[in-house]
Amino acid sequence: MSSAVVPDHPWLLPGHLVPARAPRRTPRDWFVDALLFLIALGWVLVAHDDAMSRSPDFALNIGPDWLIGADLFVGLLASAALWLRRRWPIGLAVATAPLTLFSVTAGAALLIVLFTVLVHRPLRVGLTLVCWNVAATLPYIVLRPDPALPLWAAVAWTVLFLGIVMAWALFVRARRQLVLSLRDRAERVEAEQQLRLDQARHLERSRIAREMHDVLAHRISLLSLHAGALEFRPDAPAEEVARAAGVIRASAHAALQDLREVIGVLRAESGSEATPERPQPTLGDVPALVVESREAGVRVSVVDEVTGPAEVPVAIGRSAYRIVQEGLTNARKHAPGTVVTVRLAGGPGDGLAVEISNPWPVGGPATVIPGAGTGLVGVAERVSLAGGRLDHGRDAAGDFRLTAWLPWAVSA
């Protein structure tokens, strides 16, 4: 079923969807419509029987004799027309409005139509219909006077009765608007909660993907470096071959273990609080990373000027480790054989500065080891999320330099 947004509908909240065509009646709707039809039909029979009895004490004033048959016909017609009140309430109200001037038997059906318009249609339309019923009281009393009541009393009773019907209809209208408001709010909260869960899941998977890139790129670059050394030096001493093979085996095992655990986290249902169990390095693991690179044949020089390294926050230390790891990996890929300088400096309140530099290779960067080209993008995003700054490129001396600054607040 097609729907349309009605921004300023008088009885629905702004932006609420209403069906483009009238929905089918539910079993409850059929029950209510049948009950109202029987009530209106019952009133037609009671009013007509009372008019025919002509009881001097209880009979309704019927007016001229010809009016009895006409009143019965229009009462039955108005009762049958109640089946159209859901689809065309305003049209039905306009069509039956003249009956208020003379009909007794159509009274119940007319009140039901008035109630429907007040509940489901713009309030100004319902109030207009109420004013018409009040105005029609005088012609009705003139045509069918009641000798037991003076004119003012008959008008007062009519206005009081219409006021009760209008108050009841407005109460039902307000209650339905409240239910629609609560339902709309609940649907929006549910949709927003689902959106937050999807966003958290997406962010978590993106973060795990960055972790996987950082770890696997580093280990696979070691594998490529050692495999290349074995390829170009098949006559190397047995000790060097065995050591290179051991590094290849250990790096491959570690890479497979990292990949297995990261994929396990991706398969699990992870929310915004979930974090991968492995790897979670810190600033204290940088020396081991440097040793691993030196064993792979990379010449690394380290300058450590960090004040109170044990006080570095875990998240900042992990980001610093990843920055150093990415810098060493890029140096092995694009500038093999050069000396890589790693400098760490800073302290609480001053922030943590990380700098990785290496001379620009002769003849331009090498591209022996392939890469996805997204390592620095991931590092930049990591630094940005931490509230830091990142810069990379060739400096005035012609060296390639990767520098980052991470905030390090003073612990309370």
From TrEMBL:
SUPFAM superfamilies: ATPase domain of HSP90 chaperone/DNA topoisomerase II/histidine kinase (SSF55874). It catalyses: ATP + protein L-histidine = ADP + protein N-phospho-L-histidine. GO terms for cellular component: membrane. Residues 204-269 form the Signal transduction histidine kinase subgroup 3 dimerisation and phosphoacceptor domain. Keywords: ATP-binding, Kinase, Membrane, Nucleotide-binding, Phosphoprotein, Transferase, Transmembrane, Transmembrane helix, Two-component regulatory system. InterPro entries: HATPase_C_sf (IPR036890), Sensor_HK_TwoCompSys (IPR050482), Sig_transdc_His_kin_sub3_dim/P (IPR011712). One of its GO terms (molecular function) is protein dimerization activity. It comes from the Bacteria. This is histidine kinase. Its EC number is 2.7.13.3. It is an enzyme of class 2 (transferase). The keyword Kinase applies. The chain crosses the membrane at residues 30-46, 66-84, 90-118, 125-143, 149-171. The lineage of its organism: Bacteria, Bacillati, Actinomycetota, Actinomycetes, Micromonosporales. Gene3D superfamilies: 1.20.5.1930, Histidine kinase-like ATPase, C-terminal domain.
